[in-house]
Write a structure and sequence with these properties.
Elements: E1 8-14, E2 17-22, H1 25-36, H2 44-70, E3 74-81, E4 84-90, H3 95-125, H4 128-131, H5 133-153, H6 161-174, H7 176-201, H8 204-231, E5 254-255, E6 262-263, E7 282-283, E8 290-291, H9 293-300
Parallel strand pairs: 2-3
Antiparallel strand pairs: 1-2, 3-4, 5-6, 7-8
Helix pairs in contact: 1-2, 2-3, 2-5, 3-5, 3-6, 6-7, 7-8
Length: 308
């Protein structure tokens, strides 16, 4: 239940990131605009309100994407859909890199908060509610929308930003697999509480969002189990990935592009033992980056300093 490019409209490309809008977004837009038109004297204002919500979510997701690139990760796609936005970010598997990639999204809302707060307070003191009620209602809505998005996203529930920030902080202490496991367990508890809240409020949209969170927790649990098994596998000495600072796992994890056979590239000096094909670069199974064996060896000597 995660948005993909399938069924999405490509809107534009900015800073190397492609933005897609899922078709179902229009359904929620129609519902949102219809439900808000009673607060304004003209339909143009609820339309502007929803477009402003679109803009705030978009800035939030670009915060994730650009921060991920800053720490050497990959981020080239954002999909907006009725349950919000998803920036497909792949930071290097280091707690600091993940922490910055995730925290940058809510920090966009933090930056917007004082601007919208000042406008809202200025409008209230200037009496805009009487002199320009539509404009004041619009500013008030943006003020509450931004704060609501910020507070909700910072809940320590996986996969919300707050849950992933918590995982990044725990990663420093207990490692990647255990941090994800702890965060997912907290996420299950939080998702259960949110579902009860949705039932009490009789809010179908919020209930769907809670189900999405619950399914994401289940996927996170499966991933944590895989990471725990990977952490127990033996590692080869003398080589370290320059991008993620991880030593390679010993075993036939690499597939030859020529004959299709699996082999351990570090055990055969990047040469397929089945057909003799040689490979100038070797991909890291954990971060996906490719480097020559010389660079892998240089990383083990500490010549490539770790990045955030």
């Amino acid at each position: 239940m995660t948005p993909t490019r399938q069924g999405s409209i490509h809107l534009f490309r900015f800073a190397g990131v492609d933005l897609y809008l899922h078709w179902s977004w229009f359904l929620l837009a129609f519902y949102g605009i219809s439900s808000r038109k009673g607060g304004y004297s003209s339909l143009i204002w609820p339309v502007l309100e929803y477009l402003a919500l679109f803009g705030i979510v978009l800035l939030h997701e670009f915060g994730h994407a650009l921060a991920c690139r800053q720490v050497g990760g990959q981020a080239n796609q954002i999909v907006l859909w009725p349950l919000g936005g998803v920036a497909y970010v792949s930071p290097p598997p280091r707690p600091g890199a993940m922490l910055w990639s995730i925290a940058a999204g809510p920090l966009v809302n933090v930056a917007l908060a004082p601007v919208l707060t000042i406008l809202w307070l200025l409008g209230r003191s200037a009496g805009w509610g009487e002199t320009m009620p539509n404009g004041y209602a619009f500013i008030t809505a943006l003020f509450y929308i931004n704060w609501a998005l910020l507070i909700f996203n910072l809940l320590p529930i996986y996969p919300l930003d707050g849950g992933q920030i918590l995982q990044s902080l725990l990663w420093f202490v207990v490692g990647r697999a255990r941090s994800l496991m702890v965060t997912v367990v907290i996420g299950f508890i939080g998702a259960g509480a949110l579902i009860l809240l949705a039932l009490w409020a009789r809010d179908a949209w919020f209930g769907i969002l809670c189900v999405f969170i619950l399914l994401s927790c289940w996927r996170g649990l499966l991933q944590a189990r895989v990471l725990a098994r990977i952490a127990k596998l033996p590692r080869r000495g003398g080589f370290v990935c320059p991008s993620c600072q991880q030593a390679p796992i010993i075993g036939p994890l690499w597939r030859c592009d020529k004959c299709g056979q699996m082999f351990d590239t570090f055990g055969t000096h990047a040469t397929c033992p089945h057909c003799g094909a040689q490979f100038p670069v070797t991909g890291c199974p954990e971060c996906g980056r490719s480097h020559s064996l010389a660079e892998w060896a240089e990383g083990a000597r500490g010549a490539v300093p770790p990045r955030l």
